[in-house]
Amino acid sequence: MSGLRDERLQLMLSPEELKLIDDFRFAHRMPTRAAAVRELMKLGLSATGISGDGGKSSNYGVFKRGPDGHHNEPEGA
């Protein structure tokens, strides 16, 4: 995937769904809801065996990725 984000996706959420996304965002110190949604999408897709290279959330040092998956400690910790 390219690093460009030229497509917009509008998504309607219930208050409960939005709370879950915000809880995930704050628990992992993510800078924006969009970053949290992208990370959750990557996690969900990778759980089904689909992977992509759009990994901008990792640029914020939120997750360290290794052969055993995601860790909650920032890069370099």
Report on this model:
- With 77 residues, the protein is mostly helical.
- It has one domain (15-71).
- The protein has helices at 15-27, 33-47, and strands at residues 64-66, 69-71.
- A two-stranded antiparallel ribbon has the order 1-2.
- The model has no long low-confidence stretch (mean pLDDT 78).
Quick overview:
The chain is mainly alpha-helical and 77 residues long. Helices cover 36% and strands 8% of the residues.
Number of domains: 1
* Main sheet strand line-up: 1-2
* Structural class by sheet pairing and helices: mainly alpha
pLDDT averaged residue by residue: 78
Number of β-strand runs: 2
What is the overall number of helices?
Answer: 2
Q: Report how far the terminal alpha carbons are from each other.
A: 28 Å
Helicity level, as a percent range?
25-40%
The general outline is globular
Given as residue ranges, the uncertain stretches (5+ residues, pLDDT < 50) are none
Main sheet attributes: strand count, strand direction, barrel closure: 2 strands, antiparallel
Percent strand:
5-15%
Order of helices and strands: HHEE
Which short descriptors sum up this protein?
single chain; 77 residues; mainly alpha; two-stranded antiparallel ribbon; 2 strands; globular
